[in-house]
Amino acid sequence: DAKTTQPPSMDCAEGRAANLPCNHSTISGNEYVYWYRQIHSQGPQYIIHGLKNNETNEMASLIITEDRKSSTLILPHATLRDTAVYYCVANFGNEKLTFGTGTRLTIIP
Amino acid sequence: GAVVSQHPSWVICKSGTSVKIECRSLDFQATTMFWYRQFPKQSLMLMATSNEGSKATYEQGVEKDKFLINHASLTLSTLTVTSAHPEDSSFYICSARNYRRNEQFFGPGTRLTVL
């Protein structure tokens, strides 16, 4: 899997959009970008994934740059329940996931 | 989204005993499941890949004789921690891959405490 780099922590005000960046400059052409989050003492929760195009679902939007070297996860209206560690993972889609240290997102009331 | 369950959610055992953790995919068939371990304030570390009907593939440094994995059906994988010691105390998490949707879903985790 390509290595991903994320900021260790971020704060976001409640109700605002939370934008979480991820660098994956060595990603190969058929590696997907997956996002998961982990709330304290729970298993990771799948959020979204994409290959080239931007993706949106009921939880978030994923913006992938044209060169695919970085991406941004957007939580459009952050709530306190979005406080968690967010992991960005590059993967071919059919293999084991290698987790980095992620971004600890804190939503501030 | 797809549901993956784990049982038990937590377990406390004495040193030297064995503990079995079950991982089930509830609404899809998973030919491949993964087992992770997470120590406090650390990220998830992959332990092994569990393949239905065949032997598991272990990551470097993980003792296959200590962490026994069985994947006897398309919806169930088990991890047995044999002769557990206090240093095996950790949060064990499984995941199951849904091939049709190219997604991987995680269980809620099992917290093991070895006294």
Describe the structure.
The complex is a heterodimer of chains A (109) and B (115). By secondary structure, chain A is an all-beta fold. Chain A has strands at 9-13, 18-23, 32-38, 45-50, 55-56, 61-64, 70-75, 84-91, 103-108. In chain A, a hairpin with a 5-residue loop joins strand 6 and strand 7. The model of chain A has no long low-confidence stretch (mean pLDDT 93). In chain B, a hairpin with a 6-residue loop joins strand 4 and strand 5. Chain B is mostly beta strands. In chain B, the strands form two sheets. In chain B, strands 2, 4, 5, 6, 9, 10 and 11 form a seven-stranded mixed β-sheet that branches. In chain B, strands 1-3-8-7 form a four-stranded antiparallel β-sheet, with no helix packed on it.
Q: What are the SSEs and their pairings?
A:
The complex is a heterodimer of chains A (109) and B (115).
Chain A: E1 9-13, E2 18-23, E3 32-38, E4 45-50, E5 55-56, E6 61-64, E7 70-75, E8 84-91, E9 103-108
Parallel strand pairs in A: 1-9
Antiparallel strand pairs in A: 2-7, 3-4, 3-8, 5-6, 6-7, 8-9
Chain B: E1 4-7, E2 10-13, E3 19-25, E4 32-38, E5 45-51, E6 57-58, E7 67-73, E8 76-81, E9 90-98, E10 103-106, E11 110-114
Parallel strand pairs in B: 2-11
Antiparallel strand pairs in B: 1-3, 3-8, 4-5, 4-9, 5-6, 7-8, 9-10, 9-11
